């Protein structure tokens, strides 16, 4: 009888953990999708608001900036108010903001709604991951991280074609209305299955740290975006970089010395976490540039329409999903260090291979290159995200999750900026302007991005040969 009762309890725990993982993956997908899905809808949105299409970039920029700025306080909020309270509130805010985005009639109002949506998204990402980390056993961490990683891989790929389809056959406003049923279901499941765990209810809010981190993120990201524009204001860029550099140094100094910092840097003392944040960030920058460059290359360089280019990028999505089927087996067979190094090189080479594509390249060959890139980026993403938390103690999970999510969001924004800067360098190299971009400009851009990804591999050599073996079960597999 006791054995049966224990078995039932274990079964309920596993079912609850699986539901939490699925819920968090769904909210991650919703949050990541809204960062890219409006890209193909910008012309129609600009027509609705009566502005130039180029001005609509504000809707993407403010969303990414808000995520980067507010993610650091998510750990404090979860510790102070509880996982269920913060995660549920984040879903509610994100859903309500989606309705506001869909009903706005002016660009300033839309930007304000996107800021509110970014605040909700900023709380969903790290707090949701924290809920998964606390509900999952170490030996099941690989599977859990693999499941919640796919939204970050899939959303940027399917966002443009999905947004183009909705915009073409309906209205751009339905892009945001689709979040409503997902948000309602997510909120109900959160209230039912996530415990309101609190780590430190007396932890003070680090206002100086929050302000310094916010200034550093905002100024540096905006400066990089300005560099990628054809009408770059260099004095403004210089001033922003200077302010951002000072704020970055000051925030690092403050976070190292504050008793209760808004972002806990203590997890960086864990070797696997530090390496995953270092070399892993460079890899994410390189990979995040691809969803930005590919649609532009297909439409501007190759002459495809938006829907055609969006459909072609689905080959990356197919590669992502295919690799998910064997990721766990690969990690158990070879371990983290060999996989990250070898696959990191392959991922960089797949980006470099995109520089060889031309308007005359058969679409099947293009799809093969994109599929191979999807395979490598999926494996690298999952391995890095799992390794990040493989050796982090439970007591440091909250701070590590907030720091990881902040850097992840920053690298996504930086990746887009790096892609724009690399493309501009290609234009300058070939003597082109914004109105005469050629396929050869994109070739230069992809080579630069590939180099950034290759630099990220160098940092991975610092890993121990058995790094993360408890999670990957590599040693057990060898035995």
TrEMBL record:
Q: Which Pfam families match?
A: MFS_1
- Mind telling me which InterPro entries this protein's record contains? MFS, MFS_dom, MFS_trans_sf
Residues of the Major facilitator superfamily (MFS) profile domain: 20-468
What keyword terms does UniProt attach to this protein? Membrane, Transmembrane, Transmembrane helix
Q: Which PROSITE patterns match?
A: MFS
Q: What is its main location?
A: membrane
In terms of superkingdom, the source organism counts as: Bacteria
Residue ranges crossing the lipid bilayer per the database entry = 20-40, 60-78, 85-105, 111-132, 144-162, 174-193, 205-224, 236-253, 273-294, 306-327, 339-358, 364-390, 402-422, 442-464
Which Gene3D superfamilies does the UniProt record give?
A: MFS general substrate transporter like domains, Multidrug resistance protein D
Matching SUPFAM superfamilies: MFS general substrate transporter
Is Nucleus found in the keyword set? no
Q: Which CDD domains match?
A: MFS_LmrB_MDR_like
Would you name any one GO CC term?
Answer: plasma membrane
Membrane topology, as annotated: Multi-pass membrane protein
PANTHER family reported for this sequence: MAJOR FACILITATOR SUPERFAMILY, TRANSPORT PROTEIN HSRA-RELATED
**UniProt-annotated location(s):** Membrane
Q: What's the protein name? A: Permease of the major facilitator superfamily
What Gene Ontology molecular-function terms does this entry list?
transmembrane transporter activity
């Amino acid at each position: 009888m006791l054995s049966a009762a224990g078995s039932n309890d274990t079964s309920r725990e596993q079912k609850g953990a699986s539901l939490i993982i699925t819920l968090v993956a769904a909210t991650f997908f919703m949050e990541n999708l809204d960062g890219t899905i409006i890209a193909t809808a910008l012309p129609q949105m600009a027509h609705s608001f009566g502005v130039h299409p180029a001005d609509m970039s504000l809707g993407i920029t403010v969303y990414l900036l808000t995520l980067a700025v507010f993610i650091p306080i998510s750990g404090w909020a979860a510790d102070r108010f509880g996982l269920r309270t913060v995660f549920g509130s984040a879903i509610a805010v994100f859903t309500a903001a989606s309705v506001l985005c869909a009903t706005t009639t002016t660009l300033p109002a839309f930007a304000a709604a996107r800021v509110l949506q970014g605040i909700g998204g900023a709380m969903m990402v790290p707090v949701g991951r924290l809920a998964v980390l606390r509900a999952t056993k170490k030996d099941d961490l690989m599977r859990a991280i693999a499941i919640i990683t796919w939204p970050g891989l899939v959303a940027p790929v399917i966002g443009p074609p999905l947004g183009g389809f909705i915009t073409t056959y309906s209205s751009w406003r339905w892009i945001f209305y689709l979040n409503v049923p997902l948000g309602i279901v997510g909120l109900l499941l959160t209230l039912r299955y996530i415990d309101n765990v609190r780590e430190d209810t007396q932890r003070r809010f680090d206002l100086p740290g929050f302000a310094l981190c916010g200034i550093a993120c905002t100024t540096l990201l905006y400066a990089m975006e300005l560099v990628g524009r054809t009408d770059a204001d260099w004095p403004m860029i210089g001033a922003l970089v200077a302010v951002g550099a000072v704020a970055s140094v000051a925030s690092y100094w403050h976070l190292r010395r504050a008793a209760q910092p808004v972002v806990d840097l203590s997890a960086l003392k864990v070797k696997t976490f530090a390496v995953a944040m270092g070399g892993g960030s460079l890899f994410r920058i390189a990979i995040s540039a691809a969803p930005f460059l590919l649609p532009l290359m297909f439409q501007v360089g190759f002459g495809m329409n938006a829907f055609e280019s969006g459909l072609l990028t689905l080959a990356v999505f197919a590669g992502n999903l295919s690799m998910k089927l064997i990721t766990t087996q690969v990690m158990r067979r070879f371990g983290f260090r060999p996989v990250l190094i070898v696959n990191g090189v392959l991922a960089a080479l797949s980006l470099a291979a995109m520089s060889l594509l031309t308007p005359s390249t058969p679409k099947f060959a293009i799809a093969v290159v994109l599929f191979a890139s999807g395979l490598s980026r999926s494996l690298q993403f999952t391995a890095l995200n799992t390794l990040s938390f493989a050796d982090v103690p439970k007591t440091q999970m909250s701070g590590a999750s907030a720091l990881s999510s902040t850097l992840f969001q920053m690298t996504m924004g930086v990746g887009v900026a790096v892609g724009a800067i690399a493309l501009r360098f290609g234009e300058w190299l070939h003597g082109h302007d914004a109105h005469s971009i050629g396929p050869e400009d994109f070739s230069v851009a992809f080579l630069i991005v590939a180099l950034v990804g290759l630099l990220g591999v160098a940092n991975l050599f610092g890993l121990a040969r058995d790094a993360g073996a408890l999670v990957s079960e590599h040693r057990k597999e060898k035995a």
